[in-house]
Automatic annotation (TrEMBL):
Residue ranges of domain Acetyl xylan esterase in the record: 1-318
Record-given protein name: Acetylxylan esterase
Database matches in Pfam families: AXE1 (PF05448)
Gene3D superfamilies linked to this entry: alpha/beta hydrolase (3.40.50.1820)
Organism: Streptomyces physcomitrii
Amino acid sequence: MAQTDLPLDQLRAYRPSLPEPEDFDAFWEKTLAAAAEHELAARFEPVELPLPGVEVLDVSFAGYGGHTVKGWLVLPAGTREPLPAVVEYIGYNGGRGLPHMHLLWAAAGFAHFVMDTRGQGSGGLAEGATPDPVGSDPAFPGYLTRGIGDPHDYYYRRVYTDAVRAVSAARAHPLVDSARVAALGTSQGGGLTLAVGGLVPDLVAIAPDVPFLCDFPRAATLTDRLPYREIGQFLKARRADRETVFRTLSYFDGVHFAARGRAPALFSTGLEDMTCPPSTVFAAFNAYAGEDKTIEVYPFNDHEGGGPYQQLAQLHWLPGKLRT
């Protein structure tokens, strides 16, 4: 796949004019306040595994609507004092999978909290364990158009709220240093990272890799790949709903959350990425309000972005933020 988006010099200057709802902040304040009415009820059950280097806990907590959300907490073996923590969000249609899939950050000496994504985890390589008990109006298969007729009913309202509550759940464990928590994720996980970075003001760092859920108007018309293509397929049948759809999506656009983020941030993008086109990533990066921000650019990579090279970049960058 050749580079099909804007040239790099134009990407670095790309700042789309995206309408932001006047009640954007009020919408999220009310959403999170309603979630806070439910007890967090974070539970951590030890899991016996033949992995002597780590201790694994099966996590459950109350997310949006008090619904149970699952996760893993992976700690370096023998942890006795609170550690800085990395909260990770998962890519589209992935689940939390099995604990041995999440050893990197514990190996680096940190607590690692992995949030399962409600309703997902049956179409990728890793299974999920969290149902989404909320129904939906007619939608195109996938998650991106579920409840898209109204921001209050939209699927990602629930997921973004779960993601914020996951930070609280991680902080609830006595071996997590609640003052030193970072968030990261790839693709959908990167989009959730941006949302949490805009909604949780005291994170010490965020690292969104090739983030999804950014600059919806451009993404929906630039790429024919899923998941963004779900929007076009939905509107192909529901021709009169375009204005409603993009108004709903404006409450969930990573560009708006980026404009509220202040924590040090390490982004990444692949210039041949047709799943999350680089212009949509740069839209969020250029809007990011924090002064300490960097983007790693991989000119000949698609949606895998930097892959292990980006993980290595994080391993060099993130400890300096978590250990200060």
